[in-house]
TrEMBL record:
This is C-type lectin domain-containing protein. It comes from Meganyctiphanes norvegica (Northern krill). The keyword Signal applies. Residues 321-439, 505-603 form the C-type lectin domain. Gene3D superfamilies: 1.10.287.2610, Mannose-Binding Protein A, subunit A. The keyword Nucleotidyltransferase does not apply. Residues 1-20 form the signal peptide. The lineage of its organism: Eukaryota, Metazoa, Ecdysozoa, Arthropoda, Crustacea. Pfam families: Lectin_C (PF00059).
Amino acid sequence: MDWSILMIICICLSREYAHACDEECKAALIEEFRIMLDSKLNPIQADLRNVKSELTLLGGTVADIYTSTDGLDGRSSQSQLATEAVKKMQETMSEDIRTVKEKVVMYEGKLNAIETIKIKVDSNDINIKEIKTQLTAIESEFEELSEFRNIIKEEVQPIFSILDDKFKPVNHMKEDITTIKDSIRILDRKYGDTLHDISEINDSVKILDRKYGDTLDDISEINEWTKEIHMYTNDATTKQTSMSVEIQEIESKLESYEASIKTIKPIMTKVESFESGIGEISKEHQELTKNIINSEDILLDTFTMTAIGLSRCPEGFFGIMSTHCFKIFKDQKTNWSDAENLCRSHDLVLAEPSDRMAMFLSRFLLHLYGEGSFWLNGQGDGTKFIWLNSNKTLDSNNQLWSPGKPGDRVSHSYCLSLLLIEEDVRNYHGQPYYPYDCSEKKHFPLCEDLIQDTQLLKSPLQNLEENITHKLDDIENKIMESDKILLKSISYSSSIDCPDGLFNIAAQCFKILRDQKRNWVDAKNQCKSRSLKLAQPMDSAACALATYLVVNYGDSSAWVGSTGDGSKFVWCSTERTTLNINSPLWLPSYPGSNFSPNQCVALVFTKSSLRSHPEQVYEVSDYSSLRYTLCEAE
């Protein structure tokens, strides 16, 4: 309490009670009161202004730290982590600032109340009683304000000191954040979508968040992380350099491929032109073959009927050519032994027709008796047959064998028959021989009587025979020449050169192994031992390949690289998968309906087959069958 003011108040009040208080006393009281207010208010107001100024500076600094992360915002997950770390630091500091602000607001209210009294004093708008009343209240307020000054000294100033300590590394942090931002921008520019190692930055930013999320006490360690980022950047640069070298190598290869393509394109154009020409030649060849077959059929039919009309055979016999008379016993079907005995009982023998005669004989019997089969005088073991009367060999490569026969199953009880099926006689004319088990009672005896009249002059029939034979040979030669022309065109259409010992058909290199017949597995291994593979001719080349083989090596068949179970056949390679069971390349009745494993595909090349079915070359057989081996270059 200011005692000078109290004395003046007491004097003034005594005068007032005595009605003697004058204006001079009042003026002196107000002046003393004003001096007292100013002396106490001014320091407190100065302290508040300093505190508010400090708060403003601190608030701006925190905002500046948060603003420093703007360059990172939205660019990556790492920048989001950095932003969150700064935000946590801002929240921590802001809490301390709010505590001080609340105290400032409270004491500003008290100062405002005292300043209101001072305004009244300054305007002399106060009486002595009011001064007395306010003096007591003001004294209490001043005591609280004095305590506030002590609080500022004891609590607020230390908070400011703590905040100052926290803000000391702020500049370092801002510099490190800038470094991180620059590193991210460099990585972004250099590596775009190929930042394979950028995930390392996630770990660095997470470490930043853990270490600096609340206190940022170890902000100096950002320098170490910056070094790590530089290391990752250098590693990424090294990888980029390596990738660039690989890209250059790939580009160099592409340029080489483009140059090769430019070279190949003219060749492909020529190949397409050749293939077009081959197509036309193939059509002409097929048409020629059909015409030849029709002509041959007419000649065969004419000669057969003429031969029958001019024969000099006894009644009950029919003659083919001028030296053979034949007789058929249609009473019953017999096995081969009974057929032989029946012929001998009539002083005859089982028939042994010549190759040329067999073609006419099969047509005549088909005309006269229809479809059936007839025993002939030949026996064998399945791979070799002997004519028993003349002791001549019927070779397994003879053109008169039915397709796929005699086969390769060795037995001691095979006998020869003349098999007559109208479709086969038309399609496979000249191929009537078929081996059957000698014990089968399914065939008619065909007996023969040899006419030994050597004094007969050459008959008109013999002249006709020689003439027809000459014409058939001429037709045969024309077909061979046509096949050779076609093969030559096909070979020229390919621009590749085959290794020695291999021949070229439609840009594929093949080799036929005719040293011996093998089963399919042995054939495959034999090709492999020569660094070759079992042939897998393209569909467009299969017929040309068969024609080449028959022209150069005669009638036969050979294994190719396809196996199956009867319902599906697979080529033994990854480039081509299946040989369709509906492919037009299958010979009639193949692949059949015998669904069993270990079935393999063979390429059939016989003159008669190619004439009747020029576009059908494949048949199916058990893998254990013996055939030639057809290999192809890998």
